[in-house]
Write a structure and sequence with these properties.
Layout: H1 3-29, H2 34-45, H3 58-77, H4 81-86, H5 88-112, H6 117-127, H7 132-141, H8 148-175, H9 182-215, H10 222-240, H11 245-256, H12 262-286, H13 296-317, H14 327-333, H15 338-350, H16 356-384, E1 396-399, E2 413-416
Antiparallel strand pairs: 1-2
Helix pairs in contact: 1-2, 1-12, 2-12, 3-7, 3-11, 3-12, 5-6, 5-8, 5-13, 6-8, 6-15, 7-8, 7-16, 8-9, 8-14, 8-15, 9-10, 9-11, 10-11, 10-12, 13-14, 13-16, 14-16, 15-16
Length: 428
């Protein structure tokens, strides 16, 4: 990299970090999650307004990918797998309905609007996504990540990502002319699910002794670096196994959640997250092309996909009919498509399955669903006017180190003692 290009990168990072911080704080002052401000900062800095931030820049893309890995690792560190297991049935119901219904509605609407079959399949597939990064960050900002609703959303979003990987591989094959076989789908599904289960089972047995040994090394920052090495290694292994890197990072956090060294690992992760995570959200916002609003057909297709996309995920929130908590909050938290939906859209464009007009329509759906969820969640939480600990069946204490700053790093000290009831289907 030349000296000039490096200085340009520094200038972009200064603008990006300054804008995300200022607009993040402003969003919080207005009662919205900080992620809303960070996404808006990306729009302002992107090609539609100032043209400072290019979301396709390979260096920024790499930094953004590191940001989402750090974010998912943080989320995993704060997630008790036993809590996820307690809401497993509800999360599975939300995930399955949240994939099947949006895909069916998206495909039907696309065909009705005259789209070719392959393009309709790509559009339906893009609607199945749920951005675990945006949903989890927003719930964390609002103090809801460790509530039962938050745990259901987290579990469902992880399942959605695993299913999404399978759908993406199948759709990629269809677009490329590869014949669809039951064996191929089963193989992809087995790899994705097997990696998550294997990582948690093997990691829980092998990793704690390693970190006990590392903890005895008296050198500043050793545990934090060891934790990040483990997270990045798991992300790399997930990629080699044909799964998503974010699944590997999340699994690494889950494994380290119960280790005594978690607090020190969190310090390093939080410090790194302050730099990398805003880059991720800003690049998502910078992908907004406001000019797409000038194309009437793209706007019509995008509008139809937005409607069915929102309705499909909202309905998914009500899938676990036995759950007595806030189903509307679950449904709204599942709405954002974020970077996952954009991956589907970009794949369709790159393979020729989508025209630039149809890509704009899908991008519009992704961006609108991404932007509307955080403020809607804030309204729902503020309307309830109570903490997660007031939910039936929970006794949750969340301590904030820096009140008013928000973010996952504020969710460092939390303990939860949940009852076994309320989140399982009734006995038959």
């Amino acid at each position: 990299m030349s000296e000039h290009s490096f200085s340009d990168l520094l200038a972009v990072l200064v603008a990006l970090l300054l804008a995300t911080k200022l607009l993040g704080v402003l969003a919080q002052r207005l009662g919205q999650p900080a992620v809303v401000g960070e996404l808006l900062a990306g729009i302002v800095l992107g090609g539609s307004v100032l043209g400072i931030l290019d979301p396709a820049d390979p260096i920024l893309l790499s930094l953004a990918e590191l940001g989402v890995l750090v974010l998912l690792f943080e989320i995993g560190l704060h997630t008790d797998i036993r809590s996820l297991m307690k809401v497993g049935n509800a999360a599975l119901a939300v995930a399955l309905v949240g994939v099947v219904l949006p895909f069916g509605l998206g495909y039907a609407v696309s065909i009705a609007l005259g789209l070719p079959t392959i393009a309709a399949i790509v559009a339906g597939a893009a609607l199945t996504a749920t951005s675990i990064g945006i949903s989890a960050r927003t719930l964390s900002d609002l103090g809801q990540l460790e509530s039962r609703e938050g745990q259901i959303v987290l579990g469902a979003a992880v399942i959605d990502d695993v299913i999404g990987l399978v759908i993406l591989s199948v759709v990629s094959g269809l677009v490329g002319g590869v014949a669809l076989t039951l064996g191929g789908v089963a193989t992809k599904s087995g790899i994705a699910v097997g990696f998550v289960v294997g990582a948690i089972v093997l990691g829980s047995a092998m990793v704690p002794p390693i970190f006990r040994f590392v903890g005895r090394i008296e050198a500043s920052g050793t545990l934090g670096i060891a934790g990040l090495i483990f997270a990045f290694m798991m992300a790399w292994l997930a990629s080699l196994a044909g799964s998503a890197t974010i699944i590997g990072a999340f699994a690494a956090g889950l494994v380290l959640h119960n280790t005594p060294q978690r607090a020190e690992i969190e310090k390093a992760t939080t410090a790194l997250g302050h730099f990398f995570v805003p880059i991720f959200f800003a690049t998502v916002g910078a992908a907004v092309e406001l000019s797409t609003l000038a194309d009437a057909r793209a706007l019509a297709i995008g509008g139809a996909l937005i409607v069915v996309g929102v309705l499909g995920k909202m309905a998914a929130g009500y899938a676990p009919f036995w759950f007595k908590g806030d189903k509307t909050l679950i449904g709204v938290a599942m709405i954002p498509r974020g970077e996952v939906g954009l991956i589907f859209a970009q794949m369709g464009l790159a393979t020729g399955a989508l025209t630039s007009q149809l890509f704009s329509a899908l991008a519009l759906m992704v961006l609108v669903t991404t932007f509307i969820a955080p403020p809607l969640l804030a309204v729902l939480v503020n309307r309830r006017g109570k903490s997660p600990g007031d939910e039936p069946g929970t006794d949750l204490i969340i301590q904030h180190d820096r009140p008013g700053e928000g973010g996952i790093d504020d969710l460092v000290a939390g303990t939860a003692r949940r009852s076994e009831g309320g989140d399982r289907p009734p006995a038959v």
